[in-house]
Amino acid sequence: MSADTIQIRFDKSHLVTLGEKLYGESLELLRELVSNAYDADARHVWIEVTPETISVRDDGWGMDEEGLREFFTIGSQNKKNAPLSPRFGRTRIGQFGIGKFAVLTACERFKVRTQRSDFAAEVVFDKSSWNINQEWNVPLTRRDPDEEESDGTTVILEQLNRIFALPDIERFLRERMPLNDPNFTILLNDRRIEATIIPGRKFLIEASTVFGPIRGELILPLHAPRKPEDAGIECVVRGVVICRSTFGFDLPVLARLRGRISADFLPITSDRSRFITDVPEYRVFVAVLHKELLHISRQLKDIAERREKQKADETLKDTLTRMRRAIRRNPDIAPPLLSGTGEIDESGAGVSSDAAMAPNAYEGEGGTVDAMQVQMNGTSPSNSQNPSDGSDVKEPPPKKVRVRNLQGKTVVARKMMIGGTGITCALDGFGRGSPAAFTEGGVVYINVDHPLYRKQAERGQEMLAFYLTYLLSQQVSLLLSSGDIRRAFEMQNRLLTDSW
After folding, report:
1. Burial (0-12, 13-18, 19+ Cβ within 10 Å), 357
2. 13-192 — its CATH code?
C-alpha cells in the first residue's frame, strides 16, 4: 500500500456565502465594525448612514500594512493571542476573524481605509469581482498619509441592499456595546448614543470560578419594562451582549430584574447570538447565577416585607389617631382595661394582664401617671377634664413600643395615649386560619395573615385603615361591654362612625 494525500479545497464563493449567512440580523454587521474599533482602542466611533452608504470611522490605532493583511486573514489568531488592547487594556471583543465579512449581507462592496503613522492605504472588496476572478486577492491602494487626519480606520459600505432605520441602529448598539466605558463614545449621524440608565435598587454580582470571574450589576427598576423584549438579564461576553434572559429561573420577583452579567470565559457560537451550553463552563455559570438570583430573591422579599410593614405601621398610627378622636367625642367610652398592659418595661419583662392593677408608671401628656389611677378613672391627674366635643387637645402621636407576642418574641406595636389612658395595638402574623383580631395581655393583636387583612392591604392604605379601625373598635367594645353584646355593637358603631 502506498500513502498519498488529498488536498482540502475551499470554493472562494463560499466566503461571500459565509458573510451573508453568518448573522441572522443585518444590524449585527454594525456591531462587528464597532467592535473592531473598540478592540483598536478607539475613543470615538462615527457612524454615518445615508440611503446609499454606511460609513464607520474610528480614531483607534489604525493599521500598518502587516495589520491590514492580518485584517483580511480568515480565522486570525491575533486577538486570541493578545486578548487585551494596548492603550486601555480592554478585553477584546473579536474572536473568530470572520465577522468583517458580515457586511456582505447588506451591501455589494465595501472599502477599508486605514492610516497608522506613515502608512495609509485602501482595500476594496467587490462581491461581483470576487466571484468572477479566480484569484484570492483584493486590490490594495497605498496613498500618502494625511497629516491633518489622526490614525484610525474607516469602513464604507456601498451599494446597500438593505434599509437601516436610525432608531433601530441606536437601540441595537445601545443594548450591545459597552457604552459605560468612559473612554468610548459612539456617534450616529453626529448624535451621541447614550448608555441606558435604569433607576432602581442595584445588586452587585461578583463571583470567582475555576474558569474565570463572573461580575455584573442587576437592577430592580422603579417601573416594569414597557416592552416584553426589554425584560431579562443581559449576559455579556467580552463586552458583547449575547442574550437577554432570566435563564429559566421561575421566580416571579426576578421577572422585573434588569442589568448585565459579564462572564468572558463562556464559549459562544461564531455569530455571537447563543451560548454553547453542553460544556462545563456554561454549567458552572448557570449554577453561580442561580445561587446569586436566589440570594437577590430573598433580599427583595425582605425589602418588600419591610416596606409593607412600614406602610402598615403608618396606617396603624393613623387609625389610632382616629380612635383617639372618637373616644374624646364619647367620654363614657374609656378603655382602662387596656391601659399600658403588655408593654415591655426597661428591664425587658412584659407587663401581664394580671399586673394591670399594680402600680406602674407610664409617660403621658402630663408627666408620669400612676397606672392604678388610670385604671380606675381613665384620666390623668394633670388632665382630668377631657373635652367631649372632639376639639383638638395636644397629645403625643401614637408612639412605638415593644411588646412580646404569644411566641415570646418582641414585636413593635403602637400605643395611643388619651390623657392617662393607653391603647396598645400590634400587627403580627398568626396564620390564615386564626382570628382577624383578639386581645391578649392588654394588647390588641391584628392578624396580618388573615385573608381580609391581605385583601384590604391590596386595596390601599385608606381601605386598610378603615379595616383596622373596625377591628380595633370591635376589640375595645368587647372589653368594655361586660358581655353585653348589644352594648358592644352600639359602642363599636359609635367609635367606628366618629373615627371616620
Report:
1. exposed
2. 3.30.565.10
CA separation for the pair 288, 334 (Å, rounded): 60
Q: Is the dihedral of CA 474, 475, 476, 481 positive or negative?
A: positive
pLDDT in tens, 53-77: 999 999 999 999 998 888 887 766 6
Which DSSP string corresponds to 239-257?
Answer: TEEEEEE-TT---GGGGG-
* Strand blocks (E) in 176-212: 185-188, 191-192, 200-208
The sign of the CA dihedral 494, 495, 498, 500 is: negative
pLDDT band for 270, please (50, 70, 90 cuts): confident
**Cα 383 from Cα 404, distance rounded (Å):** 30
Residue reference for cell 386581645: 439
Which residues of the chain are in CATH 3.30.230.80 domains?
Answer: 200-278
Query: Phi and psi for 423 in degrees, rounded to 5?
Result: -125, 125
Please write the tens of the pLDDT for every residue from 319-372.
888 888 888 888 777 654 444 444 444 343 443 333 332 222 333 333 333 322
How far apart (Å, rounded) are the C-alpha atoms in residues 417 and 382?
Answer: 14
Indicate the fold that domain 200-278 takes in CATH.
Ribosomal Protein S5; domain 2 (3.30.230)
Sequence-distant (6+) residues with CB within 8 A of 382 are 365, 366, 367, 369
Q: Let me know how long the chain is.
A: 500
The span from the CA of 41 to the CA of 52, in Å, is 29
Q: Where in the chain is the domain with CATH 3.30.565.10?
A: 13-192
